[in-house]
Input
Amino acid sequence: MKRYSVFAIAREAMRYHQGWEKAWRAPVPKAAYDAIIVGAGGHGLATAYYLGKNYGITNVAVIEKGWLGGGNTGRNTTIIRSNYLQDCSAAIYDKALSLYENLSQDLNYNVMFSPRGLLMLAQTHHEVRGYKRTVHANALQGISKTEWIGPEQVKELVPIMNIDGPRYPVLGALYQPRGGTARHDAVAWGLARACSDMGMDIIQQTEVTGVRSEQGQVVGVETSRGFIGCKKLGIVVAGHSGQLAEMAGFRLPVESLALQALVSEPIKPCIDVVVMANTVHGYMSQSDKGELVIGGGTDGFNNFTQRGSFHHIEETLRALVETFPIISRVKMLRQWGGIVDMTGDRSPIISKTPLGNCFINCGWGTGGFKAIPGSGWAMAELMAKGEPGPLAAEFNMWRFREGQFIDESVAAGVAH
Amino acid sequence: MLLLECPYCGVKAEETELSPGGEAHLKRFGPGSTAEEFEAYMFARKNPKGVHFERWRHAYGCGKWFLAARCTATLEVFGTYPAQTTEPPADIIDKIKAKRPDWKGWK
Output
């Protein structure tokens, strides 16, 4: 693989840009691999990447039903933060944030990570107390630079915000200056390019239709292009985790719901931090193109259609217009939905499964993008060693039986 | 926009009038049950991509709980029925079988 650099741009400029290589190969699947990852989204590709990088396992295939990064990786609002309350959540999301900080250099691919700072608004007294508690928890966990700021500082950081209410006054905010955004497609593309360069096969447009096992051990997967054998299987398919689990013979504490996002027409730069407001359930940032990127809450019913209910958009925008009166006449350009996999405690699952050598990484719900490198790191460790490392241990799928929940949904007041 | 007919008051209610209540016909377990049974009741969900039976409440109408048969892959509604039952009524099962010949049944 030719490296991307300023010299490469200069070289290609001299020869009409005809020397750029394809970023990843489109191989014909081999008969068998050491490891197969189902799902070429961010989490699946990151798992493959760290399997190769950290453990030298490169005889790997990543099998994707649609196209690479075409699911939730390409449908989220790209927010990255690590100011979580529970110790194990803070650990894995902060690992992800630390990896994001160097991901562009690591992958030799510009993922446009932008640590522009992130505000979580407190609009009720309960939230004020909750976020102050998070600040203290983060200090004990060693999550750097999470701080509580008052409404005046919020106004200073986001001049377009109306902090006086009357319905939802801003009482302060949880501020993480290291948080921000990244370009979601670039994360998938950069990881895919790095995986392909290590000799891994990324097999798109190939649907897994069954999981074959012998004596309780996985031996391969049936696909729309025939049987492919493997020694280890990683299921990283977000919304369709329940379907893959059924093929592998077990049931998950997961339900699939539609989550929507939308972007406005491009406008001049007006907001240079990410703002989340959990009470009214809306979040907003401005992309490099100038579009306001807006997200809200999930629908309440099971749904696989990647279409959501319109009244959620109405509710999200109603709240955001009150918080940011300046956007009241901005036109919305596009709206879309993704299918998120919600667990019983709204925290993810990175776990061994009842089927031998079959591992699952799912349940990231509404907040998976921020975790991509950390999730891949932990999942790769689990798949390489067969046992979870410290990052993944508490996210096992048996915690629901034991009652050992990782209750971030209560900590955040909403899905996160 | 999802429209469901409330089987009690006969109103064709749209989604904002209703509140979703998750999977229907769950087998409930009480004190003395095993951890596995509790897990199955509390958390393990069918989450099918296709025919799904679920609970809804006509929250901004008569306030009563009812059940609905719906396809999660197409959002098609097969029918609604009162909640005082342990299994879906035969006419709704027949309707689903007519429209989804390879459907494996509700259990």
Q: What stands out?
A: Chain B has one domain: 3-99. The mean pLDDT of chain B is 93. Chain B touches chain A through 28 residues (CB under 8 Å). Residues 3-99 of chain B form a domain with the Folate-binding fold fold (CATH 3.30.2270.10).
